[in-house]
Design a protein that fits this description.
The chain has about 200 residues and is of the alpha/beta class. The chain has seven helices and eight strands, in the order αβαααβββββαββαα. Bound molecules: iron/sulfur cluster (SF4).
Length: about 200
Amino acid sequence: MVAICSTETLSPKVMQDYISISTLNDFIFCPYSIYLHNIYMDTDETMYHAIPQTKGKIAHEPTDHKTSSNRSDVILSLPVYSERFHIMGKIDVYKRKEKILIERKYNLKKIYRGQIYQLWAQMFCLLEMGYEVNAIAFYEISTNKMIPVEIPTKVQEREFEDFINQFQTYDPSLPISINPNKCTHCIYCNLCDKTNSENVYT
Ligand code: SF4
């Protein structure tokens, strides 16, 4: 079961095998949420989007619409993919001169492993597409702060590969362990058949 992301660079047939980079963090939070995401992805987002997600989405719009920089050495919102990992998505910002990849987040009180995987994933895609990457970082919009992240080692690259394999082979029909605390903070909570909890955002 894989999440699909649209891009301008691959044909629809090839796309079906590719995991969307934006779903990697959600998969760690709860693999079943990816299954729900795939079911509800064509529905009105207001049905399940909670306040933090909506805020983050609005903060992201200048990058998505390529309006946050006019510098010619800055690439914004570039569709990327990796044949090696079968992943695809979009990068936020790549600065050609510094060869730095930057992921913009509205708020980053804590950086989760899945968010690091998303940044690594973007980096692996860029490298495979022929770009050089000397540094990777998050940029926190709310505090105007850059947060550098280490380039993954060979061991971490294998860790990432194992994680992608788990994602690709995930079976939503298998029982999952339910964490009610997670469920109440899950945007799919009110639509999920695995819990009767109420979403805290409603
Ligand atoms: S509500 Fe709970 S079980 Fe359902 S997708 Fe969300 S975290 Fe997973």
